[in-house]
Design a protein that fits this description.
Number of strands: 15
Largest sheet: 5 strands, antiparallel
Distance between the termini: 30 Å
Mean pLDDT: 98
Amino acid sequence: MIICKTPREIEIMREAGRIVALTHQELKKHIAPGITTKELDHIADTFIRKANAIPSFKGYNGFSGSICTSVNNELVHGIPGNRVLRDGDIISVDIGAKYNGYHGDSAWTYPVGTINDETKRLLDVTEASLFIGLKEAKPGERLSNISHAIQTYAEQNGFSIVREYVGHGVGQNLHEDPQIPHYGPPNKGPRLKPGMVLAVEPMVNAGSRYVKTLTDNWTVVTIDGKMCAHFEHTIAITENGYEILTIV
């Protein structure tokens, strides 16, 4: 069941999203060669809690980190640890914060030091695909129009869309209905309505679309070992379009 939020609930979620965005801004200052993913996790945990929120991912289904830190060919759900970031790496940082009972959720992929042109293009196309998909987030439109726009743009640029992991509704629960694939035909699925809050998060691979989960039962990697990227915003459907909640 898709739960439409009241204006009051969206106001709370706007603050949850702002905390997530501010945490991203803080981490961006520290993402550089030599730092470990565990150090980034500590910075994020401290920052979120000082903002009177709780890290959404900490303990979620047994996840040990406060954020997800996925490096290079790691797509999602990377566990923070002793891995040291090196020049030329990329890192996808997924952050959730629960504020007054409601979640905000956003992921971004960052360069570490200087990355090559091919990897930069992967990041640029993945980020652009998110906003191209969001152009379809209008009341009365079908949900899959977002999905179709993302897939079309990514594939036209020579990249592939991961199909095993999808976006989702957000609210009092971190993952709610509806599921939001980032591929598929247009004009399918439920019609968007004001009050729906959605996390749209294209996951794009430089090589084939296929992924697997490592033996830690969390970290998802590309099967061919090629780079991948992940960008996500939480949005609210409005009377006229959408509002990004995970911004400052």
